[in-house]
Amino acid sequence: MIRITPLPCMALLIASGSVHAQASAPPATAVNTAGAQTAAAAIESCNAKMQTLLAALDKHDYAGAETDFNDTMRAGLTPDQLQQAWESLPQKFGTPGPRGMPHNSASHGYNVITVPMSFQNASLAAQIACGADGKIAGFHVMTLPSPSPATAGSVAAPSSSGH
Question: How far is CA 157 from CA 36, 49, 116, in A?
Answer without folding.
Answer: 49, 45, 30
